[in-house]
Design goal:
Helix content: 40-55%
Order of helices and strands: HHHHHHHHHHHHHEEEEEEEEEEE
Strand order of the largest sheet: 1-11-10-9
Distance between the termini: 59 Å
Number of strands: 11
Largest sheet: 4 strands, antiparallel
Radius of gyration: 24 Å
Strand content: 15-25%
Number of domains: 2
């Protein structure tokens, strides 16, 4: 594979020239292994995505150019072989991550190019597997804080918070724990706070978010108080339309975890202000039961929530209800949604 002549002058092209035979051998080996890698598409990837990354590294760490070029070339071959990158890829967000995030973190890449690039790629892929999640938001947030991270561990920890904010509520408990430990400027950037915000205000906002999952970080730091009980989200849909449920579901709690089932498959329901996902569970559904406690819902849609009351006509004739301490889940006989009610 004559890679270097097709690239413009620069540190990556020079590295490819110095090690031409080794790179050609790697490409040939990948093809012999059965991978159908289009030469032109691979060259386009090198010139448009990898070259800017190597240039960013070379500006600060010229001695790392050869190892970074080798690592990213080999990783690119593997990802092309798996159709994660290239013309056959269905994950445009991964290419966006290589285009915008990786060039923004040259100091971290210089330490371990393959690990950083592979971890970023995997994170974007995993976020993209969650319906409704926003991998492009994760990329933007991580690009903004990359240079604030002194080491890889801190960068990867920040990535958990960014994944939660980008629509993966299953990471919420761990993300909140990490947010209490990371430096204030990183947390402020991820949460969209002013970079002048006092650390004490950040911790107060985290406390407020912990107490109410339907409060966003900007609302928490502004001191905003949720004013009304309302339906905050419709979760789930008919399987034929890409949802989780073949039949109208029922809901319950396992401990403090909201659950749902359509009679065939049971699901963990993870939800908050940032997103909502269902994850399969092997736990069988118990018989439907009424709520016993400070939160009750009548058959006529009259909700009693501690010392508050509200009428929710759309919930008349419900089939099941569950309360996890912050959110009331309600199902109806004619709907494939789980109706989520909270003070938000």
């Amino acid at each position: 594979m004559s890679a270097a002549p097709l690239l413009g002058a620069g540190p990556m092209a020079d590295s490819l020239k110095r090690n031409r035979e080794a790179f050609n051998a790697r490409f040939a080996m990948a093809q012999r292994s059965g991978a159908r890698i289009d030469r032109e598409a691979f060259m386009t990837h090198l010139s448009s995505l990898v070259d800017p990354i190597i240039r960013a590294i070379a500006c600060q760490f010229s001695e790392k150019v050869d190892i970074a070029t080798t690592d990213l070339y080999e990783l690119s071959l593997e990802l092309f072989a798996e159709n994660v990158l290239g013309n056959q890829s269905r994950e445009a967000a991964i290419q966006e991550g290589w285009r915008t995030l990786l060039p923004a973190v040259p100091r971290l890449l210089a330490r371990d190019p393959r690990r950083v690039a592979a971890s970023v790629t995997n994170a974007i892929h995993q976020i993209g597997q969650n319906e409704g999640a926003r991998p492009h938001e994760w990329i933007a947030n991580m690009s903004a804080i990359g240079n604030m991270c002194d080491d890889l561990h801190r960068f990867f920890e920040a990535g958990r918070i960014a994944a939660w904010i980008a629509g993966c509520p299953q990471y919420r408990p761990e993300a909140i724990r990490i947010a209490r430990l990371l430096p204030a400027p990183i947390v402020a950037s991820l949460f969209g706070f002013s970079d002048q915000i006092p650390t004490s205000n950040i911790h107060s906002a985290i406390d407020a978010i912990t107490a109410n999952r339907w409060l966003s970080a900007p609302e928490a730091v502004s001191g905003a108080k949720p004013l009304q009980l309302r339906i905050v989200r419709l979760a789930g849909a008919f399987r034929g339309f890409g949802g989780a449920f073949l039949r109208p579901p029922t809901t319950w709690t396992s401990g403090t975890q909201l659950m749902a089932t359509d009679g065939e498959v049971s699901w963990f329901l993870h939800t908050d202000v940032y997103g909502c996902i269902f994850r399969r569970s092997q736990e069988p559904a118990p018989p439907p039961s009424r709520l016993n406690g400070p939160v009750k819902l009548s058959n006529y849609g009259e909700l009693s929530w501690y010392n508050e009351s509200v009428k929710l006509p759309s919930l008349v004739g419900w089939t099941s209800v569950a309360f996890d301490g912050q959110t009331l889940a309600v199902t109806l006989p004619s709907s494939h949604h789980v109706f989520l009610v909270a003070r938000g």
